[in-house]
Specification:
about 300 residues, mainly alpha, 13 helices
Length: about 300
């Protein structure tokens, strides 16, 4: 197992470098002068503008800027934002909020998606199964921002059972509705994946053998059906963790959450390459670690993978 983890970590290095280089290049190629954008409508003297460009390495070639940033990453120095704040402090404020939001969303989508997916798979072709399939398709078809605004209007404005916006107080209770909105589409995919896998595995030979041995229905479902059915679901959840954190920009914008999404959006508008790439770098690391954990979970769910 140790050599496998080491090999996976080595594979992460080119992915990490390629992702940060691509994002840095995209931000670097955004038209406009970030120094002038920082000043707004106020004109800057040439001396002050040159001083700011030198401070943020904007007077250097692109390759030099990227290498200097890469050096800062390995020394945990993410540089300074155009507002004068250390990017590390901005990360420390924004990421815990988004991590909390994404964690709540993935728990909600996994728990309810797997639960209803198992029931639908065991009752394939019946009314309950058909109802869930139609409902999940409807959820997938409706854009997230529409669901978010509807939840905000009805739960917050019309009925008053949830806060309209979250703001600075991003506790678990205030993040519950945004987490449901963020994880709702993924919940539909988890439900359909689980339902399909359970429907395929419930008629497998090993399941019929376990039933013939007199094992309880609960043990057959949990051990022999669900365990084998979770492999594609775990794969999706591992990839979805990074997608949830990156896709939280819409949900955070609707509910006024001071997390990663809003910070990245503002940094892109201002052309702050260090801030944008720093946030994306952390998202890349989260995504890579999540996929490594998924690979390790395969061995726990399927002994054949562990023995191989």
């Amino acid at each position: 197992m140790g050599w496998y983890i080491g090999r996976r970590l080595l594979q992460m290095i080119p992915v990490f470098i390629g992702a940060t280089l691509l994002i840095y290049a995209m931000v670097f190629l955004i038209p406009g002068d970030p120094i002038q954008a920082l000043a707004g409508d106020k004109p800057l003297s040439p001396a002050v503008a040159d001083q700011l460009r030198e401070r943020y390495h904007l007077d250097r070639p692109f390759v030099v800027q990227y290498l200097l940033y890469l050096k800062g990453i390995f020394t945990l120095d993410f540089g300074t934002s155009f507002s004068g704040q250390p990017v590390r402090d901005v990360l420390a404020r924004a990421f815990p909020v988004t991590i909390r939001l994404a964690f709540m969303a993935i728990v909600i989508e996994a728990a309810f998606g797997i639960f209803f997916g198992v029931i639908a798979g065991l009752r394939k072709g019946k009314a309950f199964d058909a109802t869930l399939l139609v409902l999940s398709l409807f959820i997938i078809a409706v854009p997230v921002f529409v669901i978010g605004f509807l939840a905000q209007f009805f739960l917050g404005v019309r009925w008053g059972i949830a806060p309209v916006t979250v703001g600075a107080d991003a506790g678990f209770s205030r993040l519950l509705v945004p987490a449901i909105v963020l994880g709702l589409v993924s919940f539909a995919y988890v439900l359909r994946l689980t339902r399909t896998s359970v429907a395929e595995n419930k008629d497998a030979d090993h399941v019929r053998t376990a039933t013939a041995k007199g094992l309880s229905r609960r043990r057959v479902v949990v051990v022999h059906i669900l365990r084998n059915s979770l492999i594609p679901v775990v794969t999706f959840l591992g990839a979805d963790l990074g997608a949830l954190m990156a896709g939280a920009i819409v949900t955070e914008g609707i509910f006024n959450i001071n997390g990663v999404g809003g910070t990245i959006y503002q940094a892109v508008i201002r052309g702050e390459a260090p801030t944008v790439v720093s946030f994306v770098t952390v998202l890349v690391v989260v995504f890579l670690v999540a996929n490594l954990l998924v690979d390790l979970l395969y061995a726990a769910l399927d002994p054949r993978i562990r023995y191989a």
